[in-house]
């Protein structure tokens, strides 16, 4: 059985996509898992981190991205989406992590999302608007051990498509007021959506990103997040024990290059160890 989870935060710049890619590469390179990354974020950062900008442009120009899937749903006469040509195999720039496949994103998802919101439900025929992705990929999901969905920083129809197929979700955040402010709203909206579709979608936890051990703000906020969970577990997920440190290596890892090992890409110190430990924590939460 494939374990599927989403990464989401309404705030940008919190390390959401970095977390997605690092988890995928750790699952593949360290644990030997077969991983599918589904990039639903129109910023396309996960896509370009995994295949590089040049390859992404080729796919985008040919219509081989997830944007075409949703465009087809908006036009029942269109059958342009080709799953086989869109699915990119063995995508990581880390030689040791070659069991990762990718369904790439596109900037066009911005316009598509607006159309999905404004289109009457009947336009989709028998397909509910949040079922578009699941119906397209359900036949290949079980080929993977883990599927990670990188969601856009909103709770719209595209994000719902990712959540629809997820057992749970993680919320990467910087431990400060601005980055954590929207967490209860995320949890509440996802819970309401889960009730609407009668499928459980568990808040797996909050991932502390860009952590600075010498920052009182960060230390106090982590303490507050844990207290919030103890007081209101319905609205505040637990905090993962692993903290991803602020590190210059993260910026370098964002560039698509050739790396032999995970340690070469993510560094041999605390950053690599943190992603390794976080991966194991998430697998435990998923029951994997």
TrEMBL record:
Taxonomy, superkingdom: Bacteria
Entries under Pfam families matching the protein = AAA_31 (PF13614)
Q: Show the Gene3D superfamilies listed in the entry.
A: P-loop containing nucleotide triphosphate hydrolases
Where is the AAA domain positioned along the sequence? 4-198
Q: Which InterPro entries match?
A: AAA_dom, DNA_Partitioning_ATPase, P-loop_NTPase
Matching PANTHER family: P-LOOP CONTAINING NUCLEOSIDE TRIPHOSPHATE HYDROLASE (PTHR13696), PARA FAMILY PROTEIN CT_582 (PTHR13696:SF52)
Name listed for the protein in its UniProt record: Chromosome partitioning protein
Task: Name the gene.
Answer: parA
């Amino acid at each position: 059985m494939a374990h599927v989870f989403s990464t989401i935060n309404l705030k940008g710049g919190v390390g959401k996509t970095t977390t997605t890619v690092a988890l995928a590469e750790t699952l593949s390179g360290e644990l030997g898992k077969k991983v599918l990354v589904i990039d639903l974020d129109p910023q396309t950062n996960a896509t370009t981190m995994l295949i590089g900008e040049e390859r992404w442009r080729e796919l985008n120009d040919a219509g081989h991205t997830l944007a075409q899937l949703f465009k087809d749903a908006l036009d029942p006469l269109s059958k342009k989406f080709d799953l086989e040509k869109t699915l990119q195999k063995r995508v990581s720039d880390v030689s040791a992590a070659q069991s990762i496949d990718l369904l790439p994103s596109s900037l066009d998802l911005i316009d598509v999302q607006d159309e999905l919101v404004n289109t009457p439900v009947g336009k989709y025929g028998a397909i509910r608007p949040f079922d578009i992705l699941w119906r397209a990929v359900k036949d290949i999901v079980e080929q993977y051990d883990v599927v990670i969905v990188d969601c856009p920083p909103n709770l719209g129809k595209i994000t719902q498509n990712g959540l629809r197929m997820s057992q749970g979700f993680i919320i990467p955040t910087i431990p400060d007021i601005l980055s954590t402010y929207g967490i209860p709203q995320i949890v509440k909206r996802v819970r309401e959506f889960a009730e609407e579709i009668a499928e459980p979608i568990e808040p797996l936890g909050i991932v502390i990103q860009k952590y600075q051990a010498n920052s009182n703000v960060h230390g106090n906020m982590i303490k507050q997040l844990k207290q919030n969970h103890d007081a209101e577990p319905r609205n505040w997920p637990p905090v993962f024990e692993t903290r991803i440190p602020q590190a210059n290596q993260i910026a370098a890892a964002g560039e698509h290059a050739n790396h032999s090992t995970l340690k070469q890409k993510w560094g041999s110190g605390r950053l690599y160890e943190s992603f390794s430990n976080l991966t194991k924590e998430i697998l435990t939460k998923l029951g994997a």
